[in-house]
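Explain this protein:
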Amino acid sequence: MDIPLLTPEQIELFHREGYILPIKVLDDATLQALREEEERLRHGPNPLSGTFDVAGTTSLFRSQVTNYSAPVREFGTRGPHLPLMQQLIARDICLWFTQFVTKLPDGDASRGEFPWHQDNGYIPVEPATNVTIWIALDNVNEENGCVYVQPQSHKLGLLDHQKKSEDSWHLKVTVEGEGVPAILRAGEAVVFTGLTLHRSKFNRTDKPRRALFLEYADVRGTIGVGGASVVQMPHVYVLSGAAPLTVTE
């Protein structure tokens, strides 16, 4: 599958608004392979020992799955979307985070809601040119828990995030307004910056809502507390260029 490069207008929109949608990134065969992997990992042990599994929630997270899934690794490191990531970040990039996110049917309980946040609010990346590509494995809309993005919120810089509650690992930021729903067909993606505020509500339908989340960064960037190098983190795949020998090189 070939994906056209982003136009100057799309790149300008991304830098102005903080996101682009929709972008078709999966052909039928890759979509089916990733659906099968989501199903397999959903019903298996969490690769991160249940870190993101919370009793009673209807949202499931299977994170850093590149080492456990050949289809995810193949798409994430060789997919046709990579030239677009280079257009938005830099020539030399790495894939450093992967995650299947599945919202199970929630009825009216609201247990699967994910509050407003920035990805860099969880793990800061510098420079903050990192890009998330959120790929729908099912048709997504307001009924089954699509992502909402807040236009131009990336221009606010990294905001102070608070815990949603004492018994939750979710962070939150207070945001006025509903945001823009990323209504996507299966195989399409919304692309946004690590500073773009986004959220998702709960799944009111009777079927799971499945998605694959990939995050890319400048290979010379740093991440997390203490400025540890991105490329020294586990599960990182350098996709072009080479990692620096030292953080300050």
